Amino acid sequence: AGEAAAQTALQGAKVEAAATNGLLSAEEEAAAQELLDFDDDPREFQQDSTVQEALSKGIDLRQYALEVETALRSVERESINDYIKESESLAGLHTEIRECDSVLDSMESMLRGFQGDLASISAQIKYLQDESLSMNVKLRNRKTAESQLSSFIQQIVVPPELITNICEAEVNEAYLEYVLELNKKVAFAKKDSTAMTSACADIAPELEKLRIKSVHKIRDFLLGRVASLKKKFTNIQILQQSALLKFKGLYRFMQEHSPEMTAEVKEAYTTTMSGIYLRHVKAYLSGLMQLRVEVATKGDLLGVEEWHALGSFSSSIFSSKPGHARGDGAFKLADRRAVLDSINEPPLILAVLEQSGASLHYEAVFRSAATLLLDTVASEFDFMKEFFGNTDGFDNIFGKSIFHCMENLEGVLVGSWDAIGCVLLLMVNQELRAAMASRQLPLLSNFFQRVQVLAWSRFKSVMEGHVQSLSAYVPKAVPEVHPHFVARRYAELVASLRLLRPQSVEPMLSNILRALRSEVERLFAERLARHHTSRKSQAAFLINNYDLIVTTLAERAARGEDSGHFEQLLDSIKAVFVEEELAADHGRLISFVKQSEPLLLGGDVAGKVDGGHMETLLRNFHDTWKAAIEKINDDVLRSFASFKLGMDILKQVLTQLLLYYTRFLDIVKQTYPNGAPFARYILSIPTLMNEIKNFSRNF
């Protein structure tokens, strides 16, 4: 076993040597190794594929091993011979290697020295870096300390020139820079980080003295500026800008350091401005009121005749025209509506108005005064907010001015009987109120609310006065059939109010106008018309008045509920007048027609109609028809002064006459189918129609 192991080891060495020298191929090397392994432990390689293939072919493994060993020995001898041949070269190579080792040793020594030098230099560089870093930190700390110390000194030290300027310089725009610098130093000294320093303790008394001195100088200066606002004939807004607003920084300084003096200055300002605005408002309102015209008095109520209000002097002038008004200016809107179009225009200039000799209604006075008040209030509100920083005391400034405006308004409304003016005042107030709503000024909101209440209350009182005057109206004489002054006044008043149509009170206004309309209708139909003895005169009286109302409303483009109501009344009264006018000369013929037509409905006319009476009526109409038409024409001329109304009524009367006569002839034909014995008295329809056309054209 030992020999076998040695033999195997020897063979392995040979195989390895042969493989190293490249004498064996890869397959041979693998086979040799397998054999060696097989000899080592044959059982281990029984499963090897090469061994199994050799066994399956019946190859003797020992013989194969000897062949391999022989080959190995041959390779070994060749390898040894090669080494012997190259021995001199190997010896030279060995010598060269030794010389290289010597050179490399010297180089290693030199590099080691160089490495040591580099380490020393690196340490020196690191030392210099550390020193530089330390110096940078020290420099930065010193700069920071210097900056803070310099800032502290600059903020805490009071320069002599600042002391001089604060104490001796005149208060002006440049003074603001001084107090701002002082304010910075005072604020710095009050900081917790500064107040504990000894420097602050030394400088604090001096700063306090300067603060007190500057506050007193600013107070005196601002009080003087406020007093300068009292100059007459100056524009307040311009004076505020030049005298106060550019010094608001001084007020802010005083506000911060002396609230008591700030309150004193503000109180002086509010008192001064209150008096200034009150003086201006009084002067402006007084000037406008001198140009005001009074268009309506208590004598201009619907049911008050002119001589009742104007006295005996007026009676001597107008006594020849009973029942006519002295004028309808109090009831006509005319150009007064223009005030609504001028809502956004600036206030009227008093000097221009006086120079032009213009006159104003009160709604124009109110519009201009209220617009001026709005502009002034808005300007003052902006000024106080910018200068004082708040609007405290705003109500005190304008309280007296607004109270004076309210007094003026109440004084006018108490004695006013101008219903149109009250409505215009309501509408102007509503527009101004809407324009001011966005500014959120409670004082003015209350003012406009109060104006609304006063104007509406007075309007209701005036309208109640109109209704009561109609209810109490008693004519001194029988009224003419021509239009009554009440109808003219009523039509103009209603047209004016309907044209204005104030949205805020329209439902209530409609109720008031319905009550007024009912009272007018009762006055005409139940009281005035009854002074006429005949129904025809009564109908003519009502037609004239109702037509005047309808026509006036139409001319004023105020058609509506009132116009429709009186149109219905007019149509019904016209029918009454037509019947009454025809009944005067043709009453028997009309009665005959109305009585006979029902009798002829059955068809059998024998004995139902009185032929003799029929003949009498026909002869009478034949003899009098021309005169009757002329009489109708004359009656209409006397009863209706309006050309259009008279023509309309005449046409209706003559047309109705033609209809009655046509119906009468139909009765004659039905009674005498073969011809009436009195046919020669029958007037032809064309003849009658031709005459009617002539009168209609000539009216």
From TrEMBL:
What is the taxonomic lineage of the source species? Eukaryota, Haptista, Haptophyta, Prymnesiophyceae, Isochrysidales
- Localization in the cell: Golgi apparatus, trans-Golgi network
Q: Specify the species.
A: Chrysotila carterae
Q: Which InterPro entries match?
A: Vps52 (IPR007258), Vps52_C (IPR048361), Vps52_CC (IPR048319)
Task: Tell me the GO molecular function terms.
Answer: syntaxin binding
Per the record, GO CC terms? cytosol; GARP complex
Q: What is this protein's name? A: Vacuolar protein sorting-associated protein 52 homolog
* Vps52 coiled-coil domain: residues covered: 82-254
Spell out the family assignment given in the record's similarity comment.
Belongs to the VPS52 family.
Q: Which intervals hold domain Vps52 C-terminal?
A: 272-572
Transport among the record's keywords?
Answer: yes
